[in-house]
Amino acid sequence: MANDKQYSTTGIYRYEWIFGPGFLGYGEPQVTRQIIEEMNWQPGIRVLDVGSGLGGPAFLMATEYKARVTGVDLTQQIVDIANQRLQAKDIPDVSFLQGDIHQMDWGEGAFDVIWSRETLLHVPDKDALFQKFYRWLAPGGKVMITDYARKPGQGCDQFESYIQESGYPLLQLERYGDHIRQAGFEQVQIQDKTDLLISILQDQLHRLDSRKEEFIAEFSEDDYAYLRSRWKLKLECCQDGDMKWGWFSGRRPEK
């Protein structure tokens, strides 16, 4: 599982600083908008956001696309912050719950979209979870996931150490898609967006370096060193071809 220090209060705000206000995902808020536009959402769509973070995507979905969003996150501190911001924004069609998605349940067809950004890399048994997703979706409903993946075969020592220490049971892109198909989804699409992630990581590193003093004043030298080394490692693993960034989607059949 994830390192607890990553999601301490300081760790949460440190990540938000580099991802952008309200977000803990890459390329935000532009990536959220891009994905939604590709999926052609309609007003009133019911969304389950798995790993909803600080609420930025949910707020965007509700205000710009008139979605009704239920966010779920495992980390209590993150959910508390999201709920504080929700109260301040007073958006009626958004709610946040704390809990383990494996232990939660909704009725058949409760959602039109199940959405997850860089969260399911922590889940070793994806089959059981994807079967739940299938049942929770209405006929014609869609699952949309962005996540880390890996190339076939053994990666370099740096990459293998990184994923082992982080507790990431990464799959190959095609194998990830196979798990979605095995749950019953059709029209499964697998997009390799590694080049886009490389560009995003480079931009974020540049921002971190160009605003180093501002970051250190808000956090610390140790926080700067940690964040920079982690982003640099991700960038190198992607540039070497060991780590991939996949966008995965599938549709529950109408019948």
Instruction: Categorize the overall geometry.
Output: globular
* Beta strand %: 15-25%
Number of helices: 10
Q: What is the number of E strands?
A: 7
Main structural class: alpha/beta
What is the helix/strand order? HHEHEHEEHEHHEHHHE
Distance between the termini: 37 Å
Q: CATH homologous superfamily - what is it?
A: Vaccinia Virus protein VP39
Q: What count of domains describes the coordinates? A: 1
The portion of residues assigned to helices is 40-55%
Write down the CATH class: Alpha Beta
In terms of per-residue confidence, which ranges show pLDDT below 50 for 5 or more consecutive residues?
1-5
What spatial order of strands do you see in the largest sheet? 3-2-1-4-5-7-6
> From the coordinates shown, what is the CATH architecture?
3-Layer(aba) Sandwich
Write down the overall mean pLDDT.
Answer: 95
How large, in whole angstroms, is the Cα Rg? 18 Å
Q: Biggest sheet, open or closed, and with what strands and sense?
A: 7 strands, mixed
Using the coordinates shown, work out and report the CATH topology.
Rossmann fold
Describe the protein's architecture and organization.
- The protein is of the alpha/beta class.
- It has a single domain, classed as Vaccinia Virus protein VP39 (Rossmann fold), CATH 3.40.50.
- Helix content is 47%, strand content 21%.
- It has a 7-stranded mixed beta sheet with strand order 3-2-1-4-5-7-6, sandwiched between helices.
- The radius of gyration is 18 Å and the shape is globular.
- The termini are far apart.
- The relative contact order is 0.14.
- The N terminus is likely disordered.
